[in-house]
Target: Cytochrome b-c1 complex subunit Rieske, mitochondrial-like
Amino acid sequence: MTCSSFAIEGIATLKMISLPKSSIIQAAVKAVPRGNLLSVSLPTISTPSKITVEQPAKKLTSFSLSQNLVRTVPSVSTSLSGTTQVRFAHTDLKVPDFSAYRRDQVKKADSQSGQSDAERKLTSYLVVGAGAVACVYSAKAIVRGIVSNLSFAADALAISKVEIKLGDIPEGRNVTITWRGKPLFVKHRTEEEIATEAAVDISQLRDPQPDSERASNPKYLILIGVCTHLGCVPIAEAGDFSGGYFCPCHGSHYDGSGRIRKGPAPLNLEVPHYEYLDDTTVVVG
Model:
């Protein structure tokens, strides 16, 4: 069998096959022309090109990072401390309505809130004012309760007052009464002693004080018999000044009004609080 006859038979065989050929058969089969063997070429098979996969770009800039942001409303939300919520539609998001808390004056869209500003604030001012008054009265009651607990009892205050009958004291004499554990000097002064003490120049005194301030009734002088130096009890009708007082502990001399005139004492003898019930009766304390 010659080459030409082989070619003719191959062509005839191809023509007799009427079935459809696949792409691989079509690529492998090639019609062989007439001629010698040199003109016959080997079948060629096409190889598919290499598939390249695009590598994702590295997100190193703000623009690349912004491309991955969520641009839609989340459909599902969940957390560790809460339950999972699924959003099915945009109409299930409720817009908050504070109409129940708004004043009636500002619910109208055609009215300005400044016109009713004073009227709306009046209620707030009244509430704050009433609260402030209640707080003041409560604080007053608390303070009074604390002060009353810290102050002296009524029976102690009753004992702390002493009533003195001045008519029983002879003129020119000094009596000593115990009052609150301290000696109390009460002296019925003569007219000469009153005039002498009133004529003293108070600018020359260590503790300047006129006699009229120390004795509301010039006839009677009431003093606490405690020296202002170290607390000794002075001696009445003694010292360098007539009708005065002398402290034997450190030599302080007081005049007939109880004012310091010589010695280490810095202040005058203390005058207690007293009230006259009448011309001859006084209550000390």
